[in-house]
Write a structure and sequence with these properties.
Structural class: mainly alpha
Number of strands: 0
Shape: globular
Strand content: under 5%
Largest sheet: none
Number of helices: 21
Helix content: over 70%
Length: 435
């Protein structure tokens, strides 16, 4: 290994450790990593072919995909203020009160449809978990049979259209590896659809394995309160404008390869239309543009570039390819890296960090084996958020605590769910992006 490889790897490790330990607020560690790249190059890089100067270290913030996703966050903020989202909450509550297996399946579908717009966000799963937790126990449909599957359903959109973040990360990884061919956003949607279908099938089959008991919150809360939605303050015209701008943004991003540069700024134009119409204010727009997630996306790109330009990623890819052998099927390669990424993310709680460890290696491995890297880049990106079988961080931990589950009850559902979903994810990726 060269000194440049060692320094790039060290900066990556520092960034990931800071993310995992929450030593700095989310989004801050990659910015520090960008600064460290400049310092390392200034001290040790006099003879390097590729210098990590200021333009190099902060190139992620001039990346077209990062800006596309940033503006789209502002559009999403507008959509979440509409009565459409409030009606979704009401539908969920009515189905729970009816009870029965049919209501269980319908609720799964409703939550998965809600994920189309809300995405795999903390706000959405908190909304769903809080809603279920406020419903009293009833024998027709015990809330212990709802909380776990509905919680995990928030990250499995049944018709994936809000895939801009996954698309942006996959493109960033491929660009850093020097891959000219980019995935279609529609292909990303197809891949995620397969993973969601795998989740839905398991959740239907696994219904009988879910326990029947009150939740931890049942004794303290009734059926009112948090389950009720807040009335929208937007006019009807503003709400329709928010929905139209969301649709325009999504369609534009789906055809980014055909539309060219205009597709990347189309969400920005839509965001400004919403700003002019007072659907959102400038603070809401600014919060979307410079959210911690966008800082994370922009900051990790130069670190991935540094690993690739130093030769480290190619070296690891060649080593993994040699270990696998030249006749390894593409599906197996994708599945192996999906498992590695998701397991790492599950045990460390670092979704983004795990993706940026394994995605470049997966791409380099595919290139060494003579396979198209598109499926690997797309699948590994999604795999970072496809674990959840250990209640270590975030959503799984909340499910275990709020659901009053034992570890055995939790694993009976979550471990098979993980296996089925990760296999369907790898299958969907190789179908959407033939290798």
């Amino acid at each position: 290994m060269t000194l440049q490889m060692i320094l790039a790897l060290a900066i990556l490790v520092i960034m990931i450790v800071l993310i995992m330990t929450d030593a700095l607020p989310f989004g801050a560690p990659p910015i520090l990593a960008c600064c460290l790249l400049v310092v390392a190059s200034s001290i040790f890089g006099a003879d390097w072919e590729v210098q990590w100067d200021i333009p190099y270290a902060f190139a992620g913030f001039t990346n077209s995909t990062v800006w596309m996703v940033a503006f789209f966050m502002a559009v999403i903020a507008a959509l979440q203020k509409t009565r459409f989202i409030d009606k979704l909450k009401d539908v969920m509550l009515n189905l729970v009160e009816k009870g029965g297996f049919k209501s269980y399946v319908l609720l799964l579908i409703v939550v998965m449809l809600g994920a189309i717009l809300m995405g795999n966000t903390t706000g959405y799963y908190m909304l769903v978990l809080t809603l279920v937790a406020t419903i009293p126990y009833n024998e027709k449909l015990p809330t212990s049979k709802l909380l776990m599957p509905l919680g995990f359903a928030t990250g499995n959109a049944l018709i994936p259209v809000n895939v801009a973040i996954y698309y942006g990360i996959a493109v960033s990884v491929l660009e850093a590896a020097g891959v000219e061919q980019m995935p279609e956003m529609f292909g990303i949607s197809v891949m995620i659809f397969f993973a969601s279908i795998g989740f839905l099938l398991w959740s239907i089959v696994g219904y009988k394995l879910l326990p029947d008991h009150p939740l931890a919150e049942d004794a303290a809360q009734g059926s009112d309160g948090a389950a009720k939605s807040n009335a929208s303050t937007l006019t009807s015209a503003q709400e329709w404008l928010a929905i139209i701008m969301f649709v325009v943004s999504v369609v534009g991003m789906m055809f980014a390869n055909d539309l060219g540069n205009i597709a990347y700024v189309l969400p920005g134009i839509c965001a400004f239309v919403l700003l002019f119409a007072k659907v959102i204010n400038f603070k809401e727009m600014r919060d979307g543009l410079f959210s911690p997630l966008i800082l994370m996306m922009g900051g990790v790109i130069p670190v991935a570039n540094a690993l690739a330009d130093s030769g480290f990623t190619a070296m690891i890819g060649n080593a993994v390819a040699s270990a696998m052998g030249g006749a390894m099927p593409g599906f197996v390669v994708v599945l192996v890296f999906c498992v590695l990424t998701s397991v790492c993310a599950t045990f460390t709680g670092s979704n983004m960090g795990s993706v940026f460890i394994f995605a470049p290696i997966a791409v380099a491995t595919c290139q060494s084996l003579g396979l198209s890297p598109l499926a690997a880049a797309a699948a590994v990106t999604m795999a970072g958020w496809s674990g959840g079988f250990m209640p270590i961080d975030g959503l799984p931990a909340l499910i275990l605590g709020m659901g009053n589950y034992t570890m055995v009850e939790f694993w009976k559902y979550s471990v098979p769910m993980y296996i089925v979903k990760i296999v369907f994810l790898a299958l969907g990726a190789t179908i959407a992006f033939p290798m």
